[in-house]
Amino acid sequence: MEELVSLCKRRGFIYQTNELYGGMQGVYDYGPLGVELKNNLKQAWWSSMVYERDDVEGLDSSILTHPNVLKYSGHEDTFTDPLVDCKDCKSRWRADHIDDNKCPSCGSENLTNPRPFNLMFKTTIGPVEDDSSFAYLRPETAQQIFTNFKNVVDSTSRTLPFGIAQIGKAFRNEITPRNFIFRVREFEQMELEFFVEPGSDEEWHQKWVAERVKWWERQGVNKNNLEIIDVDQEELSHYSKKTVDIMYKFPHGLEELEGIANRTDFDIGSHTKNQKDFEIKSVVMKNDDSVTKLAIQNKINNSWTIPYVIEPSAGVDRGFLAVLNEAYKIEQLENGKERTVLSLKSHLSPIKAAVIPLKRNNQDLVDRSIELKSQLQSIGLGRVALDNAGNIGKSYRRHDEIGTPMCITIDFETLDDNSVTVRDRDTMEQKRIKLDEISNFFVKNL
Ligand code: GAP
Asked: Cis ω on the peptide bond leading into residue 161 (within 30° of 0)?
């Protein structure tokens, strides 16, 4: 993990937030390359969930959340972790992170009994800070999908089965944020709420588990580093009938990358008005506050159904860490030296190609490089960088380390014969390509 953390800082993937004031635990910033990789990962998810399917709509809802949403969702009562204090060194721990009843920091057994600690962040809306003005920062993006269920159904005329996808920030006041960006207090989720007819839920659940494993493989995650586990009954969230976790062998151990839950009719049943009009199978809190009927009409027999929900929910930051970990390699070279290379799938690479003039102070080479950079950039496959550092060896090493799939060098031969050298990141092979073929080559090889 230390090597990844160091690469992330050195090359501008991830920085500790507000480091100049001592930082904040469990909060990170994504730097110039990090934001590109993160956006590419989110775009790959969005494409596969929304664009490549015809049964999913997108949404981008607010982070500030009405307290009633998180009251009826059950989060106010149950979204807690058991907290233990060490009376000697004053450190705080999640009870399930304590072994042999000893403080992990100082070894003392002088610990408090576990007590529930609610993980939701609160803030106030407007100038007056009182009990009537508070709102939550959403602890999952899912709830705002449920509260928009009727809006989306009305504006798209969807029938079951269909889904609503959303990517966005979520906030949890984790007791012990740790392992770099694995467990943080501010993070992003990629969540799909897929609404199905009651009775077809188990079949859809299995389909989504298979679909999601394949997607992670397409992001470069080796299947051997994934484990699919059924979450034990006693560990299920309050809304779940069954949850399957996709676990990944992170540098610090096997941990959850994504959860796929069968949330039954709990959420839509919790937020609808007139609950008594429906046969809600889950145990929900009586809701006298909602003003909207959240049900969907069967267009054939006109009956109203509260749908079941299958939810694949993945963490963007955990996904980022997984694809980075998969791609990171140190290779021994024939000349006895070694190189660091990030063999990212090219659709995830922060920079798709680097155009490098062989000499930084030769205006002809620089002009041709600027021209080629604009030509490739206009294709629209992501960032193409002009690298005018002036030392070709150093440029190659830097681009290997940040995962740029190809480097294109403009040299003196280019001025004579309109050809360029293209170097492949993974094989380090170099070949000459004519400038009028380079756009096709770029598109074909990304
Ligand atoms: N809506 C369901 C839900 O939020 P979850 O298992 O609590 O379920 C889903 O979270 C995913 O969000 C996890 O699989 C993980 O990837 C990510 N996640 C959860 N808490 C996180 C945290 N503190 N830091 C980073 N990622 C987190």
From this structure: yes
What residues have CB less than 8 Å from 65, skipping those under 6 apart? Answer: 135, 136, 137, 138, 143, 144
DSSP state of 132: G
d(CA 403, CA 422): 15
| Ligand 1 in reach of 246 Cβ (< 6 A) | no
- For residue 318, report the distance from its CA to the centre of ligand 1, in Å: 9
The b-or-e profile of 12-49 (16+ CB within 10 A means b, else e) is bbbebeeeeeeeeebbbebbebbebbbbbbbebbbebb
| Cβ of 352 less than 6 Å from ligand 1 | no
Ligand 1, atom 10, residue with closest C-alpha: 313
In three-state secondary structure terms, 181 is coil
- Which SS3 state, helix, strand or coil, does residue 118 take? strand
Q: Assess whether the C-beta atom of 319 lies below 6 angstroms from ligand 1.
A: no
Q: Which atom of ligand 1 is nearest to the CA of 319?
A: 16
| Predicted structure pTM score | 0.93
Task: Please tell me the number of Cα atoms within 13 Å of 275 on its side-chain side.
Answer: 20
Asked whether 351 and 399 are in contact (CB, 8 A), the reply is: yes
How far apart CA 166 and CA 179 sit, in angstroms, is 26
pLDDT by residue, tens only, the chain of 446 residues = 889 999 999 999 999 999 999 999 999 999 999 999 999 999 999 999 999 999 999 999 999 999 999 999 999 999 888 899 999 999 989 898 898 899 999 999 999 999 988 999 999 998 888 877 899 999 999 999 999 999 999 999 999 999 999 999 999 999 888 899 999 999 999 999 999 999 999 999 999 999 999 999 999 999 999 999 999 999 998 899 999 999 999 999 999 999 999 999 999 999 999 999 999 999 999 999 999 999 999 888 889 999 999 999 999 999 999 999 999 999 998 888 999 999 999 999 999 999 999 988 889 999 999 999 999 999 999 999 999 987 899 999 999 999 999 999 999 999 899 999 999 999 999 999 999 999 999 999 98
The CA 89 to ligand 1 mean position distance, Å, reads: 29
Name the DSSP class of 301. Answer: T
